[in-house]
């Protein structure tokens, strides 16, 4: 799998007339090598690919453990004396060489140092390749989703009057860790009016009667992410609360129906049109436009392409895995979001998160 | 506190002849506003400070929750139509304006967009200001350390023959979360020979008899980090194992003694000299030079200045908080690391992690 990916990268390298590509994002390094130990918050290493060689550049704290471990890769140690740009110079020999860089990931200080050694730096998008998943990747994401469903099924027993958002986060994350797995991102739990912020930071707010509970969480399965959101009700929902919930649910259904119809008609599917379908439905019911994209691709990163948003130029294609997650957020009232993951497969659209979606009153 | 920090930043802005400073790192945003909800893996927002105004630029999913919440800050919504560079243009009115950016954090794609709108972009280091901690910050880090000590005290009961590294990670993190707190970084647990890699990714390796266990973990207390490492022994350590452990322990002591002596003599303390003291001691005993820095500053980020490393130019000063963490790593044998945090205070050097350091046999 990794050999094929590197082979494909080399083809691109030739096509774009690059002498080498410097990969810095941890997700892309994992994509090319299977190695995922680097910390995302630091710059622990790079992958460098030329027409003739594969290199991992990393600090001494990793280099020993890595030597000989990654098939077909040579490990080169970064140090003060041998910074990345010098190592690249040693490999390429000439400063006229042109190098691809991940502009979405590389920091300005790295760029400036690199640019002193090489004049020709060009943006290189490995992210684009990662958007289309193979069978194995889809399996891993699906497995992550299954664990998410299992966790959701179990979490109800843990919901109690007076518990804090943070406690519920802890319960969700513990259930994931009991499966010997990690979370794919910081779990979001929002009670009541806090749910009017889509990315609420869970805190000490305590659960009261008759509140919405938004739970947005994901599982990491062999480096691949899941992501799902369910909104449940603690107590007895009023008519208005049920009404809002069902508009969100219906909005997701509209997006799915739009996709399925387009697939049936073998039409090219613009991601922006899927977004529009769900968005317009919510607006037509008199509620505010969704303050975020309808959905995002997922894989080695929780958020990657394709982008299902109003201005997206992405076309949805076979092998893509993405979320559909409409929401209504009202200040002082709260919020509702329903998020599922879908695969665009050979046989059509398949939902891979399968927790129930009728409004659950706990 | 935040008002003073912004006032200080404005002085720097004048001094460096900048018309504005764009702060992008989440730690620095937290430092200036107290707001820490932005995800580190995404670009959720920026802070922009001019001589006359304080702004938070963020996406719609945050902007509503933020409006009016951060004292003295105006919230401006980023959108496709209003990207950051356009918002800055609206504020500054002229493209000759010079803007400070965090080159260590800003991505190349952001830099290029910004650079199209403004020709004068200069590196700006707020990280430098963050290195000196005030009393309140030291209190928060110390509180995080205390929880770390408490967790370490409790974790022994959880260590069992045959448990996996990941299970021990889970036990440590659960103990932290039971205190209603978060971890400050991904917990590292390494059994036996795995400990020869300083940044081992904990996995399914099972604990066997007569192995070293390295535990490196931290607690987040009101946005401030702790960080500590203890190496314990499962079974009965051999003479060689005890010998190696004690060299590491002695190496840390040497560094502390060096610091205390320099403080007593009121000498300027070069961080590189502290590193050298501990490093040389290990080498003098015939073991390899530490494959990482002796220590690092800590605060809103786990790793920040000062840097206690061979090539560091940092001078250790009052108000700095940093780790001293020597280690010996031997392939096929394993590793030992002992890490504590220290404050350089008015009354001298104070250790703020206080778990015992004699070799513990579990």
UniProtKB/TrEMBL annotation, chains A, B:
Alphabetical list of CDD domains matching this protein: APP-like
User: Which UniProt keywords are listed?
Assistant: Hydrolase, Membrane, Metal-binding, Transmembrane, Transmembrane helix
> Where exactly are the transmembrane stretches of this chain?
21-39
Q: Which SUPFAM superfamilies does the entry link to?
A: Creatinase/aminopeptidase, Creatinase/prolidase N-terminal domain
Q: What Pfam families does the entry give? A: Creatinase_N (PF01321), Peptidase_M24 (PF00557)
Q: Which residues form the Peptidase M24 domain?
A: 139-344
Start and end of every Creatinase N-terminal domain? 5-129
> PROSITE patterns attached here?
PROLINE_PEPTIDASE (PS00491)
Recorded family membership: Belongs to the peptidase M24B family.
- The entry's protein name is Xaa-Pro dipeptidase
State the organism named in the record. Candidatus Daviesbacteria bacterium RIFCSPLOWO2_02_FULL_36_8
């Amino acid at each position: 799998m990794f050999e094929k990916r590197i082979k494909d990268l080399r083809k691109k390298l030739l096509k774009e007339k690059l002498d080498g590509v410097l990969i810095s994002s941890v997700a892309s390094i994992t994509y090319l090598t299977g190695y995922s130990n680097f910390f995302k918050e630091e710059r622990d290493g790079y992958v460098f690919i030329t027409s003739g060689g594969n290199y991992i550049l990393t600090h001494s704290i990793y280099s020993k453990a890595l030597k000989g471990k990654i098939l077909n890769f040579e490990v080169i140690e970064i140090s003060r004396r041998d910074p990345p740009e010098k190592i690249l110079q040693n490999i390429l020999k000439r400063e006229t060489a042109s190098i691809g860089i991940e502009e979405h990931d590389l920091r300005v200080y790295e760029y400036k140092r690199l640019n002193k050694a090489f004049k020709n730096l060009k943006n290189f998008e490995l992210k684009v390749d990662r958007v289309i998943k193979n069978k194995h990747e889809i399996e891993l994401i699906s497995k992550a989703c299954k664990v998410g469903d299992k966790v959701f099924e179990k979490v109800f027993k843990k919901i109690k009057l007076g518990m804090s958002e943070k406690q519920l986060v802890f319960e969700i994350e513990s259930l994931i860790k009991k499966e010997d797995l990690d979370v794919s991102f910081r779990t979001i739990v929002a009670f009541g009016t806090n749910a009017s912020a889509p990315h609420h930071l869970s805190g000490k707010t305590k659960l009261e009667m008759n509140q919405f509970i938004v739970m947005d969480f994901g599982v990491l399965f062999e480096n691949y992410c899941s992501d799902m959101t369910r909104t449940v009700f603690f107590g007895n929902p009023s008519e208005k609360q049920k009404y809002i919930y069902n508009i969100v649910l219906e909005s997701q259904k509209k997006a799915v129906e739009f996709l399925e119809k387009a697939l049936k008609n073998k039409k090219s599917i613009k991601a922006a049109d899927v977004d529009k379908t769900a968005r317009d439905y919510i607006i037509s019911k008199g509620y505010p436009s969704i303050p975020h994209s309808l959905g995002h691709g997922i894989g080695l990163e929780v958020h990657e392409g394709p982008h299902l948003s109003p201005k997206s130029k992405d076309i949805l294609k076979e092998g893509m895995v993405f979320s559909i997650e409409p929401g209504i957020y009202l200040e002082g009232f709260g919020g509702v979001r329903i998020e599922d993951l879908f695969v665009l497969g050979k046989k059509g659209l398949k939902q891979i998160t399968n927790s129930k979606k009728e409004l659950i009153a706990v």
